[in-house]
Design brief:
By secondary structure, the protein is mostly helical. It contains three helices and no strands.
């Protein structure tokens, strides 16, 4: 799966599953998700479960950092890297 496809899947998931219906936020690939309070700790757990089931990628605890989860771009990069590492193993 390409990074752009991962980004779009994450964006769709966040918009449909995590945002309140009355919240209007235009998510760009570099939107700062924590700074704008789009993500919190419960949302991170939900996203990790989504990533695991959708992309068949397990995200180790040491990779659950603010930097890796800062935006759709950084999450997509992390998922693509973990996927490549899993394939190479």
């Amino acid at each position: 799966m390409q990074a752009q496809e991962i980004t779009e899947s994450l964006k769709d998931f966040i918009v449909t599953q995590l945002l309140e219906d009355d919240v209007e936020v235009e998510l760009a690939s570099d939107t700062p998700l924590f700074e704008l309070k789009i993500l919190d700790s419960l949302a991170v757990v939900t996203i990790v479960n989504f990533v695991s089931s959708t992309f068949n990628v397990n995200v180790p605890l040491e990779h659950l950092t603010a930097e890796n989860l800062r935006s759709l771009d950084t999450m997509s990069t992390l998922i693509a890297r973990l996927n490549a590492e899993a394939i190479a193993a």
